[in-house]
Amino acid sequence: MEVTFRIRRYNPEIPGKDKPYWQEFTLKDVEPTDRVLEMLHRIKWEQDGTLAFRRSCAHGICGSDAMRINGRNRLACKVLVKELGARIQVEPILGLPVLKDLIVDMEPFFAHYRQVMPYFVNNSPLPADGRERLQSPEDREKFDDTTKCILCACCTTSCPSFWANGSYVGPAAIVQAHRFIFDSRDQAWQDRLDILAEPNGVWRCRTIFNCTPACPRDIEVTRAIGEVKLAIRGGKRDGIIQVSQIETH
Amino acid sequence: MQTHQFDAIIVGAGGAGLMAALYASKGGANVAVVSKLYPTRSHTGTAQGGIGAALGNHEEDSPLWHAYDTVKGGDYLADQNAAKVLAEEAIDAVIELEHMGLPFDRTPEGRISQRRFGGHTSNFGEKPVRRACHAADRTGHMILQTLYQQCIKHEVKFFDEFHVVDLLVNNGAACGVVAVQLGTGELHVFHGKAVLFATGGWGKVWQVTSNAHSLTGDGAAIAFRRGIPMQDMEFFQFHPTGIYKMGILITEGVRGEGGVLINRHGERFMEKYAPRIKDLASRDVISRSIYLEIRDGNGIGGKDYVYLDVRPETVNRYLAEAGESRRVTAADIEKKLPDILDFCRVYLGIDPVKEPMPIQPTAHYAMGGIPTNVDAEVVIDENWTVMPGLYAAGECACVSCHGANRLGTNSLVDLVVFGRRGGMAIAEFVKHADFVPLPANPAAEAEAALKRIRQSKGKTRPYELRQQMQKVMMDYVGVFREASGINTAIAAVNELRHRYHTDLVIDDAGHKFNTDLMEAWELGCLLDLALITAYSAAARTESRGAHSREDYQQRDDANWLVHTLAFPKDFTISSTGELHVDLNFNKKVDLSLAEVDPRFAPKERVY
Q: Which terminal residue of chain B has fewer beta carbons within 10 Å of its beta carbon, N or C?
């Protein structure tokens, strides 16, 4: 099939291209099962080498190639042409400064990530037998979903609250915090809840729900944020409070 | 040009680089991690099935058995002292990862859960053993995340999206690297007492590969251009189960959970090739078996692929046949292999709990690379002479603990064990070493090489050369090789390399995020490594592990229990002609375990 790509371009080094603009490219012999990333490569390799985007693993694990594709945040390597049809629009993800074409400045995103103490803390003595700390399969399951996060920024850059206020830590940072808050082995959960109780923490989330469908790893992001909110309100993390079990008054 | 000074420069931020950075930092060194990617994009994150360690959480296990499996899996080319270190320190390394918070799956008792994996056995090959410690089928992701988290906790200094393009050597010692800051195009010189390369592999040499686009062998190629030999380059592993045509990896954990390989007749063909452990034989054995099935017309529909079948009814039928009491349900498969199911559903439109997966072997892992000793110090000849200040760990290094064929899960073990050893060795080294002065105009050669590409005015676009190289290497230096094919590849790739240096053209003459330029530069690394691989493959007139010669089908221990060392010949950084190597076969395989235990002596390898 023939597919036309409409791509948002920007090159700060070239006069005339240093304001964002749209450019169309047409590709022939596209298979419906081709990944959008492969098509971007074909455009870059066969037609215009100046087209700039990030990519690495090409199968949805490294998180490099988050883009806004036909209006939705996707990983270019994890969306096939057949889902999109013969006209495909590709733009940089929103809410982070564009540096060149589809490449955005990820530093603000990683700065928010670092804010939430995204690392394991346990200062108790190690087990005397020199082996692993124990954790039941049930306790392990409580934070399984949020361990899947690949820091691609699809969720954070789909969030209207983040678009409106770049100081908001954003869904991805909360997901990362959740992974530790609900890990029975971790001891800094109260510190993380305190961080996320600040004005630019979880309360900036208005439960708009854009983040959950944006996640290429199918993490229930909105639910994770809700669980953190409930933990802050309850001042405890004794098991995850199931959102579905909350009584409405 | 900016110059930075650190005690230690770690190049690459995958598992080995991050482990080295952590340990060098903890040991007091002032460390910089320089990576062309954001650390969490590194390819360690794609490792799926598990990390091997003889924890014995389910059944009896021992590091000696792990060492034996590693040596046997490596078809007796592994240095046995290195295999011993790998297997023994794996236990401590995995426990340490857990202490760092890594969310392993758990047994009902709360211990780290372990699964079967190819080539891992108990009691010297007797039967499969549960040794692969796993976190679903995203173990590598968890390792990468955990190590990056720890680096943040310990305030390790990162230079993200700095692409290293040259190694600086002065007075016979490594003293730094040159890197392009991708966002600006500016060159930075990193001056260090110690440099550790942890830049990963070069699967992009081949057409069908599980490897990331970024796996272009930069560190190995840079080191080679500075005179460091490449060891055992003919040994490149083809993983048996890549998604057909795409090469995306389907973990061996699928077979560990009971999945089987099936040909067009519905036969479980590994019963023919590895009667004892069947679908859990070593990867080289299984990849060859698949090729042979395809050659005999037993591929699906007569084509060049077979099925990997993990449907519960299939798994349970063979479990019953084997007299095992365990049974699996679709829900179990979903729980244990979620990412694999996701790949198949997204990319193939196939649901593996209902349909078998079409698979073919995919270029996966470099056993060879930059030669090192067990402390990750780079050695530059057959006499184990160390280049002061230079270290390598992970896939780009050749310790050699993997020999001629790496065992599944041992790549992750390698990262943490030898990354850690490298970090500890560096911490000690920099306490006593002085800074070797930088050479004059340290960035000049790198700058000239990039300028030549940036200003190239030829007719050939880089992707044309890359695709031709990948096809030639797949056809002639793949799972099976023979002399005339390898020589065809050498001539073809040298011709491509010549065009690369004389007839290239790129579009982007800019500086900021010039990915056109950097991809073209990476292609230069791939071409060099393809040639070194082919030369090494031509010289080794035997079949061993992943190097399978149709014209020399037997392993030849009398002549070939040696490592291949390929040195650059008549080579300068700016040379544009053919690439040639001097091959040296004087580095003998370490057989220290066999000297005290006859079970480790080379013998016929059957599974």
A: N
Which letter, b or e, does each residue of B158-183 get, where b requires 16 or more Cβ atoms within 10 Å of its Cβ? bbbbbbbbbbbbeeebbbbbbbbbbb
H-helix segments, B296-437: 312-321, 330-336, 338-343, 410-432
Contact B526, B204 (CB under 8 A): yes
In terms of pLDDT, which residue wins out, B575 or B391? B391
Question: Does position A239 have pLDDT exceeding 80, yes or no?
Answer: no
- Tell me, what CATH number does A17's domain have? 3.10.20.30
Asked if B513 reaches chain A (Cβ–Cβ under 8 Å), the answer is yes
A-to-B residue pairs, Cβ atoms closer than 8 angstroms? 160
Structural tokens at position B419: 């990354």
Residues forming a β-bridge with B413 = none
CATH of the domain at A111: 1.10.1060.10
Its ipTM equals 0.96
Rg (CA), chain A: 21
Q: CA nearest B117: which of B267, B285, B253, B316?
A: B253
- Chosen domain end from A57, A80, A103: A103
- Alpha carbons B474 and B208: distance in angstroms, whole number: 7
CB A109, CB A149: distance < 8 Å: no
Query: Between chains, do B108 and A59 touch, taking CB under 8 Å as contact?
Result: no
* pLDDT digits 0-9 by tens, B374-413: 999 999 999 999 999 999 999 999 999 999 999 999 999 9
Catalytic residue list contains B283: yes
A95 and A117 assigned to the same domain: no
Q: Return the closest-CA partner of residue B531 out of B478, B486, B464, B500.
A: B486
Closest to B223 measured CA to CA, from B202, B208, B203, B239: B202
**3 state SS of B334:** helix
Same domain for A44 and A147, yes or no, is no
The domain boundary, picked from A103, A120, A136, lies at A103
Residue of A46, A118, A150 lying closest to B149 (CB–CB): A118
Please tell me the distance from the alpha carbon of residue A91 to that of residue A104, in angstroms, as a whole number.
10
- Is residue A192 domain-shared with residue A148, that is, in the same domain? yes
Give the per-residue pLDDT at A123.
97
Are the beta carbons of B207 and B428 closer than 8 angstroms?
Answer: no
Name the band, by pLDDT with cuts 50, 70 and 90, for residue B255.
very high
Residues pairing with B372 in the sheet: B378
Test mutation, B55, B109, B141, B341, chain A, max A CBs within 10 A: B141
Q: Which domain holds residue A63?
A: 3-103
In whole angstroms, give the CA distance from residue B310 to residue B357: 8
Closest-CA residue of B relative to A150 is B40
Residue A81 and residue A136 in one domain: no
The residues, any chain, with a CB within 8 Å of residue B320's CB and separated by 6 or more, are: none
8 Å CB contact of B347 and A110: no
Catalytic residue, candidates B283, B421, B466, B497 = B283
Question: What's the pTM?
Answer: 0.97
User: Between residues B586 and B570, which one has the greater pLDDT?
Assistant: B586
- The answer to whether residues A25 and A120 belong to one domain is no
Query: Which of B37, B110, B145 comes nearest A56 by C-beta?
Result: B37
Cβ-Cβ contacts under 8 Å for B569 (sequence gap 6 or more): B580, B581, B582
SS3 B217: coil
Please state the rounded mean pLDDT for residues B278-283. Answer: 94
Distance CA B447, CA A135 (A): 53
Q: Give the model's pLDDT for residue B578.
A: 86
Q: Residues A163, A222: one domain?
A: yes
